[in-house]
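Journal club side-thread
Mid-discussion, someone asked how the predicted structure for our own chain would compare to the paper's figures. Pasting it here so we can look after the session.
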Amino acid sequence: MKPKSLIAALWFVFTAAITAFAQNGNSFITRAINGLSRQPVIEKAYLHLDKPYYAAGDDIWFKAYVTAGGKHTLSTISGVLNVELINTANRIEHSVKLPLVSGLSWGDFKLPDTIKSGYYRIRAYTQWMRNAGTEYFFNKTVYIGNTIAAAVTNVAGHKKTDLKKADQEKTGVITTRQQSAITDVQFFPESGNLLYGVSSNIAFKAVGKDGLGKDIKGVVTDQNNNEIVRFSSRHIGMGGFNLLPSEGKIYKALITFADGSEKGINLPTPQNKGYVMHIDNSDPLFIELKIARGKNDDTGGVNLLVQSGGEVYYAAQSRSQQSTITTMIPKSKFPSGIAQFTLFSDKGEPLNERLVFIQNNTPLNLSVDPEGTNFTSRGKRKISVTAKNGTGKSVFGNFSVAVTDETKVPVNESAESTIFSNLLLTSDLKGYVEDPGYYFIPQNDDAVQDLDVLMLTQGYRRFDWKQVLTGPNTPKYQPETSLAISGKLRSLGGGKAVPFGKVTLLSSSGGFAMLDTVADDQGHFVFKNLQFKDSLKFVIQSKKNKGSKNLRIEMDSITPPPVAWAMLPASSDTGFSVYMNNSKQIYDKEISYGIKTRVTALKEVEIRDKMIKINSSNLNGPGQADQVVFMRDLPPGAGTIASFLQGRLHFVTVTMDMYGVGHYYSRLGTMKLFVDGAPSTPELVDAIPPEIVESVEVLNSPTSVAVYGSEGYGGVLLINTKKGADRPSPANVNIYMPQGYYKAREFYSPQYDGPANQPKVDLRTTIYWSPNVATDKDGHASVEYFNADAKGNYRVVIEGIDANGSLGRQVYRYKVE
């Protein structure tokens, strides 16, 4: 620990409370603090995945944690999370919307057997996060392999592609060029400047064409080729050295790469004017800050501002003219994560900046207590978890638990993205961070120093000081607290806004539902606080207001964020080949047991005749109805569907109630109504404009209604709407199918203590997954599951968070014999 006597020699005017600066009259610091306080709170998203890589036919299970602010508390800003699977062509392969409850949610992706091998990205974001930019989204690259495709019998005899070699060439692994020509090396003087006569720490980073760090060594010389200092990288191409520039000299680094090739790079030219801000972060309790002034500097007073997560935790000012000034800052002032130290002139111009990673808050202590000691194949496991904070107090927390067969799913823990590495580190840094899990592996003595080098070489992306000082822009995207349906009423002719029109929203999900609202003076309407599942169809209609037949309804749509090309690093995880070999064995085993049928790729067939499209939702098959009425016979100016069908249906009576809504009765009873295969109601059918309906099918015989079970006892009426370009844009009505909430599937876990009818083979690699494990008032929770058939090492990963934003992660292993 640094001697406390050093604090007495400090040069800064300190304050423990931010508000004291206003009393001291420092207008710049007050303005900067107020500017930061006006910045929108930034949300972050982290997904805990069950595995680091996948194969065709797998399920990707994930738990979402969305936090807000620098203290990482679970967010209450947003109520909707978007999660996307982006394919090798950089297009969204699949997307889901998930409801966020106090910042938590979970979901899954089912990977088809036909998926192409390659690097995929999983992206997660809220609409509110879009204000900070797409770089704040959660992004994780995962490799998905397909051994099933390789096993397909290719009747057409197409040439197979060596995917492994192609992937290596794509990522730059295979090359005959010298490393000096394809490796980028940059040098970063601490806080940005080199000053003559001031000793400075210079960090460096070497990155290859594949985006990964490359080990280098070298020597620094002056213009007379005098050797000054030797250096070498200490971790994935990064390292540092000290340099004391002498007056009038310039410096160059001669770099030697692993293949023996060399390259010379000029170091930044030292100056006589400016500041160097040096930080020593090695003490567990204090940050030592040293500021050196150039001999020709006449800046005057300086201001220091330290913020983390958009909140100022330390600020000070000085008008000292001393050449070197030192101070100690307690780490207890800051939350865990990245702190940004910025030195300003008395005019508010940024002079120097330095990032520091502070591990201050004690993470949650998660203790794992397995029940029993005999761990066998298909044996029952019960694992108890106790969560306590840094003071040993039991806490309420929410966690996700993944159990995998590590023998089949080897893991490179250094490369893992964890709840710590994501929320505390990579979410605030620009660019790709290689091996983020390395910096959080327990008992890693080198991690603290290597993490400090990372802070010197990786860019920070949280704030633009110019924007902070001039004031924030109005956020373009508002938080989605729930699902909403909105649009505008416009005239048919000129497209002018139609104000104050009455709008009705109809749906038959879970029973008939109808909502009414009124558009504003700009013709805009919105239905808020909706809860509906994906693929649900709505009818939006404006009626019973003057001119309703002469307007169109234009639905609002939020354009998805652009999918920018992302660097896809080559996987250095040798465990993936083990996993893919096992995936092939599982596929072959399931074929032999008859669980799956081998896929055969057929020859390409050229269809010359025009296909006749039959749009039908009939469970008996298209055309298998007692009567089909095509709406192409609809006369001009027809009213509702019911009025058109009256007298046209065989053995069906159509009656109108007092509101003009049609009801349908067959010889069997009251008919069940379906619109495009979804159960509906007379009210909803009445709201559908006849011009968008293609056909109506009548099922009123015992044979035709049998497939509908009890729902078809009274007969069935099927309304089939037109598809795509065949559907006109009717006046005052819009049939709308927005993306609703995805209903997450439940992980299947066999119960081997039940009936004897059990699977012949249990080849699971994800043994157990539970996304919602909550501790009680005593901090306790437990999970139960059964092991699979395979013997070997099983790995249990528990991640989560408590109500105060304290993060927790625990890895537990056991052996199945």
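Post-session note: Residues 575-592 form the longest helix (18 residues).
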